[in-house]
Amino acid sequence: MNTSDDEAIAAAAETKKKTPKAAAAKGKATGKGKAAAGPKTSAKESSLLKQKSPAEFFAENKNIAGFDNPGKSLYTTLRELVENALDSAESISELPEIEITIEEITKTKFNTMIGLVDRQRVDEALYDDFESEKAREKRLAKEARFQESQAKNAALGKKVKDAPSVRGKGRGEAAFFKVTCKDNGRGMPHDDIPNMLGRVLSGTKYGLRQTRGKFGLGAKMALIWSKMSTGLPIEIKSSMKGQNYTSFCRLDIDIHKNIPHVHLHEKRENKTHWHGAEIEVIIEGNWTTHRSKILHYMRQMAVITPYAQFLFKFLSDAADKNLTIKFTRRTDVMPPVPLQTKHHPSAVDLLLIKRLVAETTKQNLLQFLQHEFVNISKPHAERLIGEMGPDFSQKMAVKSLTSQQLVRIHQLFRQAKFDDPSGNCLSPAGEYNLRLGIIKELHPDMVATHASSPQVFEGHPFIVEAGISIGGKDVKQGLNIFRFANRIPLLFEQGADVITRTAAKRISWSSYKINQQQDKIGVFVSIVSTKIPFKGTGKEYIGDDITEISSAVKP
Ligand SMILES: Nc1ncnc2c1ncn2[C@@H]1O[C@H](COP(=O)(O)OP(=O)(O)OP(=O)(O)O)[C@@H](O)[C@H]1O
């Protein structure tokens, strides 16, 4: 015992003798109160710890899932529904037939739907778009000046600018849309519908397989957004092949508990023997700001999926806004259904090894290594076990492995050499389809395509397919970059994406006798993998920081 300990004990004994109250206070401060019951917690000190459900988290951070604002939310809702529809039809090798309708709902119609009486404005000055007499005069004078300068510019042959738009300060009046997506896919089992669409982070696409969906989030985000912006539930109709009934379900989500709140769930007659799903959601959106993104998305989807048929409709009370576009099927050749694969030993972390041990049906370590991972043959597994050390044996029960032994296996997996995973489980669009898609949607003067052999990053196989086109319809001068990941068009965050950066900065177009500024160049790059390293859950771009991918994208 050193001097300072001695001193502290002596001082404490002294305090105890002198003032029992002061000693108690000291005990509280040092956390050494009554030995058995522990220090009492006053109401003021009660724990501040709170839990949040995944649904609450995503409702509060909806931007990370692509629901940044009403316009983007309309775009992302459509996209999530279309991608689910395609995944579903392709999973049963059915040529996809997908109908998408966006119906504009006026405020009066919306209010009638929810039983709210429409009210006219009474006190105009209360509103954000109210313009005082003075402000009106000022605006009109500004507009007149602008028109004068435009007239002068036009007379001098100079470029004429668009008139600046006049907007209120705030968000203005909300616009509502009913988004419906109907497919001819697998449908959903009746009893699973509430959890599939009303519980965040639940889905059927979590295995190691190339799919458009991945997180078990997209459709639920559309529902959360509808709950946040209109308070209306989602409606689902679904029927599986051979079922003589259609499931109908109307539900919303209990955000706090992250559980579905079912309003109606029943079986109805399926006279037409239809199979597939039809999902309908009513949300706030903005068609004006995101019309062009939505149409680009549909067109790009038609490029990468020429074997699908899409019927896109925009319906409005203003007849001149109505739109119907049919993207026709050009081929019956579908890429093969992507296969579920096992994990590559170099791509697993400790947590995943523990999960695989907990879930495996294999009894011993030898069988476990051989059957739960790709590229470990029996002789290879025997050698690996030998290398693990004397505590390990081929016959040892895999469920009896200690935490330390699992760490040893993980360490060995990181250091040992394994053959690369094969790309057999992947389903690229195929050069034929990519070429066809480009010709069908762009009508270029020239197209060239190329597909790479499978490559690997972090134990995941990936394939890059690319196409270049020159000329065509609705193609602007310069680079027109079309990016696809697991056959999803990526339209946002273009600047940071590996494909854009490669096309714009790392390719010497002049060496191919292509003028980067003047020619109408279409660049199409499609990456498929069991793991697309998206930045964020919004699936909007692939970063430029994975060497294997960036060098594979550059020809
Ligand atoms: N049109 C559909 N047809 C059949 N099943 C569907 C359909 N839409 C959704 N599902 C089922 O509901 C599940 C949840 O869909 P959700 O969009 O929430 O997530 P996901 O597609 O699995 O992943 P992600 O969040 O990456 O899109 C899907 O995994 C699928 O099983």
Automatic annotation (TrEMBL):
Its main location: nucleus. It comes from the Eukaryota. Pfam families: HATPase_c_3 (PF13589), Topo-VIb_trans (PF09239). Signal peptide: none annotated. Residues 1-50 are annotated as: Disordered. GO terms for cellular component: DNA topoisomerase type II (double strand cut, ATP-hydrolyzing) complex; nucleus. It catalyses: ATP-dependent breakage, passage and rejoining of double-stranded DNA. Residues 421-554 form the DNA topoisomerase VI subunit B transducer domain. Keywords: ATP-binding, DNA-binding, Isomerase, Nucleotide-binding, Nucleus, Topoisomerase. One of its GO terms (biological process) is DNA topological change. ATP binds at residues 84, 183, 204-205, 213-220, 539. Residues 21-41 have a biased composition (Low complexity). It is an enzyme of class 5 (isomerase). One of its GO terms (molecular function) is ATP binding. Belongs to the TOP6B family. Homodimer. Heterotetramer of two TOP6A and two TOP6B subunits. This is DNA topoisomerase 6 subunit B.
